[in-house]
Write a structure and sequence with these properties.
heterodimer; A: alpha/beta; Rossmann fold; six-stranded mixed β-sheet; 6 strands; 23% strand; globular; B: mainly alpha; Cyclin A, domain 1; 38 helices; 0% strand; nucleotide-binding (chain A)
Chain lengths: 211, 695
């Protein structure tokens, strides 16, 4: 028990082609590819990181961005403890979509869900700042109002990617500590599924379920 | 045990025969001929479909012939030449004789080869092709208890049928299919009570494909030819025989088709000493021969005919279409080109013009651009098949952009949905080969069309691709409209199917909280295109286009097409009436009894209806009931169950990760063909059981 593992179920949401899959690819494989096939349905990936002597295992559902697939999203965020809402700093439309996702998450998802607002593709701005179409202040304002973590990232260069996940990991109650707080017995929720956001003390195995 | 040892013997003997198919020999030949005439007529003669493949995967039991002997002796002799010559194409390997003779020796060679391939798969279904793949799991799971019960029931049933067909066998084609309709009526009556009837029922349409086959599908033959008491599932047969044959055989892959078997019985021992080189040469000659044979077969159907026999074409195409023929055959199968060759040119001219006018209109000033759609497509084009150089060329981007955009705005109910950008590419790539010099056809994936195509040709390519995509998507409209009900229904059907076929796997998924939609959504949305390499996808589409009837598509029919394909009009179950039954309405309760009722009704109709509709042209006779979505579910089931054993040892994460990246990189056409054959078998067993699942 010296190094207990906490599983965090995390979902990525955001408009098509903002770089959700690329963020995950960078985080999981430290890799990048310019033209990735559009995600269909959702993709599942995992990554372990160490945070303060704890091992945190991210179980990531990377959802498809196109509107047509949006009806699948609840299935993936319903049990998530964390969400990345991603937009493209060069695409104002994608920020509008991000607002919608934040709203939907607050309404539909787990109340304790940790949400990070992520403005991706800042590498483009390094070449030409005029490409920026979503001001940092605007995004920070939204993050403040809604209680979100906020990051600007580049999956291409790797900027801030691990920070996003570490930031989320630090916000999630870790397993060892959780036990001290005797925070048990909360697994039963409105859903027949196990609600992991309230049950960081749930066993590792349970974390593999129902996403 | 008697049965098995017999099989082993025959297996060995046949292996010898294989290497020396040109040399004739004595009593063995006679006995083999006897048995293989029979099973050849049973598999290739009666079923257009996977014929030799289904025997591979299912029966593959050399006792087939023995068992059938008494039943089939008569007609197999009378019909032999006819049947075999006509249907040898369905033997994927074609004619293996070194000589080109089509006489009975040739037939025998083909048959013997067929047996060989069968035996190959019996002895080592795994090793023959790709050890990892086929030794996998699936085979052990492939036969659920339910399936064997079915077979037993069917076994009894087919006794009657056989006599029946034997009786009818000498009748000509049209009589034959009429008879079929009658018999199908008969068995449709008790559809819901009798599983074997369900199977018969399914088999009904098949004989109609075969112009005088003996009226039973390979499936039913295989089914009944397996002695149910021994429960010779593929695996058990495989393992029992495999163990008795040297391990040499097992480790020799497909590359060694003529293995030296140390403990062969005796015969042709001298020939066995032929050098490896000679054998290799011989094999190459044979392979070349079989390819030529196949090409000739397609030529015969397509060229110099006024009306192309689509029925024959479908039958032949199921097992793969030679590259040079693929563009035109796809256009025919999908119903873009009319079967009447005299109308083809004018139709192409008109459709191509229509497309180009559509573009002009769409991109004219008065037509406002649908910016989000345009933009979405623009984003996705460079992300389409990013690993294939062909799709990085600017001219290809432009073509695909126009095709997809025009399709999207013409189909506002669905609009552009990701995945459609995948589906357009097999058409584009295949039709592109039409305009490339022969030397470039094999390298189409790295060839810039700009270097070889004139502007006109590029336009034609684009237009043809557009129309064929349109026809194709019409069959699966519900996959892309709001809520994607077609896909949800398919995923649901897949899970129910797996529950029936492979309960262990189903339960394991349940225990691990794996939901089918988590991995199967993409399988449906992109028709498994993301799971396979492009060349295997294209091969798969040969079968898809052959298997699924354009009649299941809806009202693409232009006046021209109505006149060339009157079946669409006259069919008692027009797409309008069948579609809801196939797919359900968007919010239809999947368990609605309504849909199952419709299904059975449809079956009855299709079994009974074709009479009279197509007297003028038997090629327009209804081919099958299969819809694209439906067949695809069976392919997905076969694909999933292939990994069953491995999956059952994995946890949630392992399962999902595995299924997102299945190890199919090295799949060859042979692997795909095995998969399609398995799907076909499952379909033949379960297709009409949907009413049972959904209750």
């Amino acid at each position: 028990m010296s190094n207990p593992i906490t599983s965090i179920k995390l979902v990525l949401l955001g408009e098509a082609a903002v770089g959700k899959s690329s963020i995950v690819l960078r985080f999981v494989s430290n890799d990048f590819s310019e033209n990735k096939e559009p995600t269909i349905g959702a993709a599942f990936l995992t990554q372990r990181v160490n945070i303060n002597d704890h091992t945190v295992k991210f179980e990531i559902w990377d959802t498809a961005g196109q509107e047509r697939f949006a009806s699948l999203a609840p299935m993936y965020y319903r049990n998530a403890q964390a969400a990345l809402v991603v937009y493209d700093v060069t695409k104002p439309q994608s920020f509008i979509k991000a607002r919608h996702w934040v709203k939907e998450l607050h309404e539909q998802a787990n109340k304790n869900i940790i949400i990070a607002l992520v403005g991706n593709k800042v590498d483009i701005l390094e070449e030409n700042e005029e490409e920026r179409k979503v001001e940092r202040e605007e995004a920070e304002k939204l993050a403040d109002e809604e209680g979100l973590l906020f990051f600007e990232t580049s999956a291409k260069t790797g900027t801030n990617i691990s920070e996003v996940f570490l930031g989320i990991g630090e916000k999630i109650p870790l397993k060892g500590l959780e036990n001290e707080h005797a925070n048990g017995g909360l697994n039963v929720t409105e859903d027949q599924r196990v609600n992991l956001a309230n049950t960081a003390n749930a066993s590792e195995n349970a974390s593999a379920c129902s996403c | 045990m008697g049965v098995r040892s017999t099989s082993q013997e025959i297996t060995r003997e046949t292996k010898e025969r294989r290497s020396h198919s040109s040399s004739s020999s004595t009593s063995l030949v006679t006995s083999l001929m006897k048995s293989w005439r029979i099973s050849s007529s049973s598999s290739s003669g009666s079923s257009s479909k996977p014929s030799n493949k289904s025997s591979q995967s299912f029966s593959g039991n050399p006792t087939t012939g023995t068992y059938n002997d008494t039943m089939y002796n008569n007609h197999s002799h009378t019909n032999d030449n006819n049947t075999n010559q006509q249907h040898r194409p369905s033997n994927e390997h074609g004619l293996y004789s070194l000589s080109t003779a089509n006489n009975s020796d040739g037939n025998f060679d083909a048959m013997s080869k067929q047996q060989n391939s069968t035996n190959k798969s019996i002895t080592s279904p795994a090793n023959t092709y790709s050890p990892l793949r086929y030794s996998s799991p699936s085979s052990s799971q492939i036969e659920s208890p339910r399936a064997s019960v079915l077979r037993q029931q069917h076994y009894k049933h087919s006794h009657h049928n056989q006599l029946y067909y034997q009786h009818n066998n000498s009748s000509n084609i049209s009589e034959h299919s009429t008879t079929h309709k009658k018999s199908s009526d008969k068995y449709f009556e008790d559809l819901d009570e009798d599983w074997s009837a369900v199977i018969d029922n399914y088999n009904m349409p098949i004989p109609m494909l075969t112009n005088g086959g003996n009226g039973k599908s390979s499936v039913s033959h295989n089914t009944q030819s397996n002695d149910p008491k021994n429960n010779l599932s593929r695996t058990s047969t495989a393992s029992s025989i495999a163990t008795s044959i040297t391990s040499t055989t097992l480790t020799q892959g497909q590359s060694l088709q003529y293995p030296q078997l140390p403990n062969l019985n005796t015969m042709d021992a001298i020939d066995l000493q032929k050098s490896q080189e000679e054998i290799e040469n011989e094999r190459e000659v044979q392979e070349l021969n079989s390819i030529m044979q196949r090409i000739t077969k397609f030529d015969n159907i397509i060229k110099g005919k006024h009306i192309i026999n689509l029925q024959e074409l479908r039958q032949l195409s199921w097992n793969g279409i030679p590259k040079p023929h693929r563009p035109i055959v796809w256009k025919l199968l999908i119903g873009y080109l009319p079967a009447n060759t005299k109308r083809q040119e004018s139709l192409l001219k008109r459709k191509r013009q229509e497309y180009s006018e559509g573009l002009k209109h769409t991109f004219s000033d008065e037509h406002s651009r649908d910016i989000p759609t345009w933009h979405q497509i623009e984003i996705d084009i460079p992300r389409t098949n990013p690993h294939i150089p062909l799709y990085q060329f600017k001219s290809v981007h432009d073509s695909l952009q126009r095709i997809l955009y025009l399709w999207a705005i013409r189909h506002p109910a669905s609009g552009y949905v990701q995945g459609i950008n995948d589906l357009v590419t097999p058409f584009f790539q295949t039709f592109l080969t039409e305009y490339l010099p022969p030397s470039k056809i094999d390298t189409v994936e790295v060839t810039d069309p700009n270097s070889y195509l004139t502007e006109d040709q590029k336009e034609h390519l684009e237009a043809d691709t557009f129309w064929c995509l349109t026809k194709f998507l019409e069959q699966i409209t519900d996959n892309y409209i709001h809520g994607q009900p077609g896909i949800l229904k398919q995923v649901k059907n897949l899970s129910q199917l797996v529950k029936r076929i492979d309960l262990d796997l189903y339960k394991h998924f349940e225990n691990e909280h794996v939901e089918f939609i988590q991995f199967a959504f993409r399988w449906m949305n992109c028709l498994l295109m993301r799971e396979f390499q492009m060349d295997t996808v294209i091969r798969m589409w040969d079968t898809y286009l052959a298997e699924t009837s354009p009649e299941t598509t809806s009202s693409f029919a232009t006046p021209n097409q109505l006149s060339t394909n009157n079946d669409v009009l006259l069919s008692p179950h027009t797409p309008v009436s069948r579609k809801p039954a196939m797919f359900g309405t968007p919010n239809a309760d999947l368990t609605s009894p309504m849909s199952s009722t419709n299904r059975s009704n449809m079956g009855v109709q299709s079994g009974a209806s074709p009479a009279g509709v197509s007297s003028s042209d038997d090629s327009s006779t209804r081919f099958s009931n299969t819809s694209l979505n439906e067949f695809h579910v069976f392919v997905c089931a076969a694909f999933l169950i292939k990994w069953s054993d491995a999956l059952c040892d994995m946890d949630f994460q392992g399962i999902i990760t595995f299924l997102q990246n299945p190890p199919t990189k090295d799949w060859t056409e042979t692997d795909i063909e095995m998969l399609l054959s398995e799907a076909y078998i499952w379909q033949s067993l379960y297709k009409d059981a949907t009413s049972h699942w959904l209750k």
